[in-house]
Specification:
35 strands; alpha+beta; eight-stranded mixed sheet; Lipocalin; Rossmann fold; globular; 636 residues
Length: 636
């Protein structure tokens, strides 16, 4: 359903006709692969192995929605466990040898409820039937067939408290209180026996306190207080010393390293691994053998460092059997000798395999998107460039297949977050655009995570300023290199990327020939007022990173696109989910209403069954067809 008019806007003309025109243009484009080929739900995906190693579970469409299926490994017949028809199941997993849990929200509101069902489809149960309550998963408790540990903001929408919940009956037992709004606990961590031994709390709005206890019968005691730009993030407990954890820490340094940390002494012990260029936070272990297995870090691509000969041996075996593909382990049985293996590249969603590490047998289960031929798709190339103030920005450039890298139409695609990063791999948006003849440019502007503390801090209060300059400098780099045609450059992004899109067309109005804002922020003041309640404990941190509406009023006014719409001369397409809890629909309404008040009819696509991004496939189809039509009209 598209909007005919804006809420509270009785007089402005409808954009429905314009939207349908764009969709028609998008549908008329002749290409081997359609929008549906890139954005339909996979036939089978999200494979997992049961703890006993006897069953596969996976997600597959039922009435166009992702639902859960289970199949015995020796049989061809599968049982459908769920029947969701309004929205995809958001995520699932095995909670015991015969019972699975899954989460689902309502219309994109991100208030995820927890459900459970037996592997044969019996005894379905809504475990958290509390409207407006969001759950967090704390510990599956692999050695417990009855219970798991979750967090819920049931007593206070701002605060999450830990509960032990029976996955068969839904009976809950609260494990700790979290009723101090001034100094709220924001995370809980268990040891290898499922006991909550670590918690962190927010103090003064911008500091984090790490707390520890020897047993659940004791009170937590403070171990370490850090500024929010510093981190000592416990990953899991040591296998022998129950007061020692493995952690990712940037204490006293720019880049996070993998270390051992003594919780009683409050200090780091040994450094396990460090990298000079990037933060390292990925550490894996064998629960069964109680050994560290590998370290994962991300530069241009994913890299693995093995710490265990047994793990390395069977992984190298997989590499020899699956040459040319990235390999990941998506699931394993409790005995850790049978695995679900996933392959992928930048041009393929890959396949799932069943691997028996004892026999060495590898069996293909399913291709994720067999209708796409990866040889016809585009390569994602790591790139880097210098900003005007001397920073090195890393990113990715995807060019249309079989086209010379010269004077191309380019879509500049800043990521959301903003405190995340783009990484190498398959991206359906990127491939859709590349197959239509557009280059796609993604950059990890300052503030993108993984590049160290100083790079992160350099983004503070720089929305629309140096963060935007990083994007602009990247565009100029492409132009000067002769890759981009200066007159044919578009900008498209979602969430913070949507903000960057609006900032791009207001603060550099001559740089882009068209723009697409997807659930983007337009007004920093109203954005701060409409954040979800469970973000409230971090509001002072947001003030430090984005700006304080009281003390930074002038700066925020200057960098809020809605106050500078007179600068916009670039054709703009706006897309929004009505139930978005992070970027309220008012953000999109404001920019569209401001432009329409000047007589500019902005195409505006609103979906009333969506939130922060479109999850229902029919909505994705409509959005990307309209997007292609818009790009065909203004970028081609």
């Amino acid at each position: 359903m598209t909007t005919d008019k804006l809420p509270g806007d009785p007089g402005l003309p409808s954009s429905a006709a314009d939207l349908q025109t764009l969709i028609n243009i998008g549908e008329q484009q002749s290409h081997k692969y359609s929008v549906e080929d890139f954005f339909r739900n996979p036939e089978k995906s999200n494979y997992q192995l049961s703890p006993g190693g006897n069953y596969f579970s996976y997600m597959a469409p039922y009435q166009r929605r992702k639902n859960i299926f289970v199949q015995k490994i020796s049989e061809d017949h599968a049982i459908r466990l769920t029947s969701s028809t309004d929205r995809d199941i958001s995520g699932y997993g095995w909670a015991s040898s015969d019972r699975l849990i899954f989460i689902k929200d309502s219309g994109g509101d991100e208030n995820f409820q927890l459900y459970a069902v037996n592997h044969d489809g019996t005894n379905p149960k809504d475990l958290t039937p509390y409207p407006g309550v969001r759950i967090q998963l704390i510990d599956i408790l692999e050695d417990d067939e009855e219970d798991i540990i979750i967090g819920m903001n049931k007593n206070n929408a701002q605060l999450f408290e830990p509960y032990r919940i029976n996955i068969k009956t839904g009976e809950t037992h609260q494990l700790a209180q979290n009723d101090n709004v001034v100094e709220p606990i924001d995370s809980w961590m268990t040891d290898h026996e499922g006991k909550i031994r670590i918690a962190t709390k927010v103090v003064n709005g911008t500091e984090t306190v790490l707390m520890y206890r020897d047993s659940e019968e004791e009170s937590f005691r403070e171990v370490l207080k850090t500024d929010f730009t510093e981190s000592m993030s416990p990953l899991f407990f040591d296998f022998e010393k129950d007061h020692v954890v493995y952690a990712s820490s940037n204490l006293g340094r720019d880049k996070a390293q993998i270390v051992q940390f003594d919780l009683k002494a409050g200090k780091e012990l040994d450094t396990i691994f460090k990298h000079d260029e990037v933060d390292v936070s990925g550490l894996r272990y064998s629960r069964k053998r109680k050994v560290l297995t590998s370290i994962v870090y991300l530069t241009d691509k994913r890299h693995l460092i093995f710490l265990d000969k047994k793990s390395e041996t069977w992984f190298r075996k997989l590499e020899s059997l699956l040459p040319g593909y990235e390999i990941s382990i998506s699931s394993h049985n409790k005995n850790e000798d049978k695995f679900i293996v996933r392959t992928f590249t930048d041009r393929s969603l890959g396949s799932y395999y069943f691997f028996d590490s004892v026999s060495g047998e590898l069996q293909k289960i399913a291709d994720v998107s067999p209708w796409l031929d990866e040889s016809e798709l585009a390569e994602m190339k790591p790139v880097s460039y210098q900003t005007r103030d001397g920073l090195t920005i890393h990113g990715y450039l995807t060019l249309p297949p079989h086209k010379e890298a010269k004077n191309l139409p380019i879509i500049v695609n800043p990521h959301g977050g903003p405190w995340v990063r783009d990484s190498w791999g398959y991206n359906p948006e990127v491939q859709l655009f590349a197959t239509r003849g557009y280059g796609v440019f993604q950059m990890n502007y300052r503030g993108s995570t993984g590049y160290g503390k100083e790079f992160f801090k350099s983004s503070f209060k720089q929305w629309g300023r140096t963060m935007q300059n990083d994007i602009t400098d990247g565009v100029e780099w492409l132009i000067n290199a002769g890759i981009a045609d200066r007159k044919h450059i578009a900008i498209y992004g979602g969430s913070y990327g949507g903000y960057a899109t609006l900032a791009g067309v207001t603060f550099t109005p001559d740089l882009y020939c068209c723009a697409i804002d997807y659930v983007g922020v337009s007004n920093l003041f109203t954005f701060m007022k409409t954040i979800p309640p469970y973000w409230k404990p971090y509001l002072d941190m947001m003030y430090e990173m984005v700006g304080n509406p009281e003390t930074d009023k002038e700066s925020m006014q200057k960098t809020s696109p809605v106050f500078h719409v007179d600068n916009i001369k670039t054709p703009l397409f706006v897309v929004q989910g009505a139930n978005d809890p992070r970027v309220n629909i008012d953000e999109s309404d404001q920019i569209v209403l401001s432009l329409r008040s000047r007589g500019i009819d902005v195409p505006y696509l609103v979906k009333y069954d969506e939130g922060h991004g479109f999850h229902n496939e029919e909505n994705r189809f409509e959005m990307y067809k309209a997007t292609l039509g818009f790009l065909s009209k203004y970028l081609s």
